[in-house]
Amino acid sequence: MRNTAIGSSPPPRAPGPVTLALPPDTTAGHLIRRAQQAHTALWSAEVGAEVTGPQYAILSALSRRSGVDQVTAGRAASLDKSTTADIVERLRRKDWVRRDRDTGDGRRYLLSLTPSAKAMLPDLTGRVEAVQDRLLQPLGPNLRRSFGRLLGQVAYRGSVPAAGKDEDEDVEVLRLSSTPGHLIRRAEQVHGALWSRHVGTQLTPSQYALLCSLVWRPAIDQTAAGEMASLDKSSAADIVARLRRRGWLLDTRDEADRRRKLLVLTDLARDTLAGVTPAVQTVQHELVAPLSPADQDKLISLLRRVAYQ
User: Fold this and answer.
1) pTM of the prediction?
2) Domains along the chain?
3) In this structure, are residues 269 and 248 in contact, taking their beta carbons and an 8 Å threshold?
4) Cα–Cα distances in angstroms (integers) from residue 9 to residues 98, 131, 227, 269, in the given order
5) Residue 36: how many CB atoms within 10 A of its CB?
6) What's the CA dihedral at 162, 168, 170, 175 to 10 degrees?
7) Which of 15, 159, 193, 239 is most exposed, with the fewest beta carbons within 10 Å of its own?
8) Which positions ≥6 away from 187 have C-beta within 8 Å?
9) Which helix (H) or strand (E) holds 123?
10) What is the pLDDT of residue 168?
């Protein structure tokens, strides 16, 4: 699958100071974000817009364990309370989820799948499975198993839920804890939490990636910088505009093509990167901390193959 919006192979980079900026194409957090983009594109192609990945996660959770409250279902689907509430309401409007008062606790409501949800789930699950197969197309069977095992350790922080058939399961669905797309989304959540803890709000991961692209490939245009940072054109344009306003980017004319503008980092941007990169390095270290050094390298290698397919 070629993702034309963000390119299909790691862009070349010039040698640069590792202490100033991490190379995006070897950074776990960046590769996970890019793999999520690949999964989203495949989901659109195979499943469409009728059901989102998080919605399928709730349906899968309720298929495996019916009659649980909203908080429990959301936790199983790796969703926060607000997102879970919105998804459950949408699924209720589709007549796929019912909400009944708990006979043992009148203040509590329990969720379960409706007959119409159970009827459509086999077909939906087949399409979701096709997404996972296409996502892992660059990997052989043995590497797929390794990828799932290693990513699961990162996504669940070393405590992957045990496999096994649930007693309530009467419709076969994908087990979320071994589904690559779900693991990628959960790992991205872990990365986001670590980023907030160590880096804060000074820079977003996407902004950092774009600045790094200009360290590793100085004086490139907005399109090339966006591709290296795994950003679509609209997102790259928005980020470049924000960084210009902060005084972190300057435009210069391409001597070979005067119609072309090149982006250059300011001294302020370089000072900012020098200050924030140690925190970003801590994020990446803690993200893959559940793995041994050898397994960390293996996961990075496999992520690159999935992310840059």
Assistant:
1) 0.88
2) 22-198+266-309 (1.10.10.10)
3) yes
4) 45, 20, 10, 27
5) 18
6) -20
7) 15
8) 32, 151, 154, 155, 287
9) helix 115-135
10) 60
Bridge partners, 110 (sequence order): 100
Place of tokens 């900012």: 272
Instruction: State which amino acid sits at residue 86.
Output: D
What per-residue confidence (pLDDT) applies to 167? 52
Return the structure tokens found at 107: 């203040």
Kind plus residue range of the DSSP H or E element containing 63: helix 53-64
Helix (H, G, I), strand (E, B) or coil at 203: coil
Both tokens assigned to 240: 């470049």
Please report where in the chains the tokens 């907030």 appear, as a residue: 196
Cα separation, 29 vs 252, whole angstroms: 31
| pLDDT tens for each residue of 62-76 | 999 989 999 999 999
Judge whether 201 and 242 are in contact, CB under 8 Å: no
Higher pLDDT, 108 or 133: 133
Amino acid letter, 166: D
Rounded to whole angstroms, the Cα distance separating 86 from 89 reads 5
**Residue whose C-alpha is closest to residue 96's, from 121, 116, 111:** 116
Query: For 130-144, 189-203, 255-269, 289-303, which range has the lowest pLDDT when averaged over its residues?
Result: 255-269
Residue 2 reports pLDDT greater than 60: no
